[in-house]
Write a structure and sequence with these properties.
Helices cover 39% and strands 25% of the residues. The protein contains 17 helices and 23 strands. It binds glycyl-adenosine-5'-phosphate.
Amino acid sequence: MLDFKNIISHCKEYGFIYQSSEIYDGLAAVYDYGPNGVELKNNIKQYWWKSMVQMHDNIVGIDAAIFMHPKTWKASGHVDAFNDPLVDNKDSKKRYRADQLVEGYAEKIEAKIKKDVDKARKRFGDSFDEEQFRTTNGRIIERQAKIDEAITLLGTHLKNGDMAGLKQLIEDLEIACPDSGSRNWTEVRQFNLMFSTQLGNIAGEEEKLYLRPETAQGIFVNFLNVQKTTRQKLPFGIAQIGKAFRNEIVARQFIFRMREFEQMEMQYFIKPGTEMEVYNHWKNKRLDWHKALGVPAESLRFHDHDNLAHYANAAVDIEFEFPFGFRELEGIHSRTDFDLSSHQELSGKKLQFFDPESNENYVPYVVETSIGCDRMFLAQVSLALQEETVPDADGKESTRIVMKLNPAIAPVKCAVLPLLKNREELVKAAQDVTAKLKPHMNIQYDEKDAIGRRYRRQDAIGTPYCVTIDFDTLEDNTVTIRDRDSLKQHRVKIDDVAKIVGEKVDMASIL
Ligand code: GAP
């Protein structure tokens, strides 16, 4: 994995991600996807859509509007409770999320514990028992107690909406501004994360529209429409991919925390009482989805929520080890009947399911899986991007930057390269091969620069296969296929290329 700065600059240099409105010095926490970025992002969405919707008989998709009736957000609790606690440092004038300051304090102590554990592991070798060490070493016990106390108090204050308590906690823990080292803090205030605008030209609360902060509500309000028109029985799911908007207080980690982002969410409607079984089922199924793409098990972990959102009775994050540490990549939430019941109450319309087995009407419970497409993108790029030493054409060693994406999601599946660009017959043959392959997959034709440099360019964007047209091609209609990871080349007939490469990049292999 490269360091975070290099990943960001690589994303720009190779047309994956640009800062939004860059010519005006950019817009904070808003990003645009370039030509390679949009291909990769579309492939990630396709992988999710195929595995969540098309591979399940009882999950269907929708595409709801971003704008929704303002009452939606009252019922969902977002108007009253979708807040983050913000605090400013009076000296540096920097703004922070109070909860993240406390979590940062805990992370620093955890890092010290980890250092001690690593040292002990080295000292004791194979006989080292981490669990035993953590529960018996005096210094670690003391440090862990500090973490537990801070996190418990944080949870209590957040739950009670106690902003004064949060401020006191920051002071008691002697947390300093990461930028200036100052401990001169303002009061902690609640800040609603929804962006608002208005309908037509009439101002006022009634006409206030919100840009949706989650896609889920478009699914809840359509629950009965979908159930009736598809004649689904419980359990069944509704899935959606779409934009969501949050006025994040602190958005400093590239596409990890954006103000405009995309979610891939699935709400699974179930019989009340079955939620824990279903919740565990989706927890494991979603973890397997990541692993099938090739994410190593040690880069993923579950993290149970300490502070449950207003709608949940159980919640877990799938965390991924980003270049800045383990962070939330996806959430699995047991949302009870909170949303459907609230919408039923505020709209006065029944949102119930008639269960033919028990002969009764009830409001279904919901387990949701929710993943940010942009975070998944960042996870994949940061995992795949590597610097390695390889033999070059004349047998010497050289370094290359290679993006080892799973071929099924790579932006370009195959590059077609004539050995020389100044030989008309080679260029013509390469263009013919390109035209043949184009209907089957995303192809890039490249004739500029020496062949070695062209291979490196394709490595840097993750192209799994390069087809080279050389003088033998003109004699016997064969080409070489170069494998991005093994660097091995083999000759095949032009007529077989689409089938050979097609099979290797086929998403079916990971579904
Ligand atoms: N419907 C539930 C929900 O929205 P969430 O945990 O707030 O739950 C789900 O968000 C996922 O959306 C997160 O796991 C993350 O991947 C993504 N996400 C949330 N806020 C984001 C942001 N500001 N920028 C990018 N992705 C974000």
